[in-house]
Amino acid sequence: MAGKSKIEWxxxxxxPVTGCTKIxxxxxxxxxxxxxxxxxxMGQRNYQNxxxxxxxxxxxDYPLKLKTPQIIFVNSMSDLFHEKIPxxxxxxxxDVMKRAHWHRFQVLTKRADRLSELSPILNWTSNIWMGxxxxxxxxxxxxxxLRQTNANVKFLSVEPLIGPLPDLDLSGIDWVIVGGxxxxxxxxxxxxxVTDIKDVCLEYNVPFFFKQWGGINKxxxxxxxxxxxxxxxxxxxxxxxxxxGNILAL
Length: 250
Ligand code: SF4
What we know:
Elements (H helix, E strand, L loop, with lengths): L1 E3 L7 E3 L2 E2 L12 H11 L12 E2 L6 H4 L5 E4 L12 H13 L4 E6 L2 H7 L9 E6 L7 H7 L5 E6 L16 E5 L11 H14 L3 E5 L5 H4 L2 E2 L2 E2 L8 H12 L1
Parallel strand pairs: 2-5, 5-6, 6-7, 7-8, 8-9, 9-10
Antiparallel strand pairs: 1-2, 3-4, 11-12
The structure holds iron/sulfur cluster.
């Protein structure tokens, strides 16, 4: 429900919502769905509804209780901009992120159209990093929606990469994470697709994070690209972030 994360590019997860519905090809082997079904079978309180979209009001203030500053992935088990999540609830999540200014929050969505639609009424404090998933060329339009938001840090989660991303435009984008699909039904990722994205990152001077090759045995496949690990992340002006947080917390 909430706690330490195994995801390479974050530290903790916070799930004020669980459950979701599939929206594009990247959802085919949804990890959250598999896990939710497992957690339901184990009798976990927050997964009584399995993968059905469920709001958990009592989880809203969880980040405020975490006193150590950390990177928190918001809704790893759902999509914050899902059409069934009321606007008022999304505003509450943003309010907590503002109040918990000592953390950095990473929000990731595939509902980029709703994200850009709601962006003007959201409070984009500097500790919120906003990302969209771009798994293939069919959904590259999400990048434009992300660009239209007022988020201070904008990133792409190119995972699972299941096709090439031709003519990738990274203007206004601060970070790119790439990864292949893992698990028994993993779809293949070609090295050329990854290399092309890495080259565009170098051209635009955008930090590039290569998470994994994926596949059936993701540990064995590892995460080396061209003989090295790519762990780049945007440089954050923590002072600015803290100052902004303090002002906003008044
Ligand atoms: S949007 Fe994310 S959480 Fe929702 S079904 Fe797709 S992969 Fe799963």
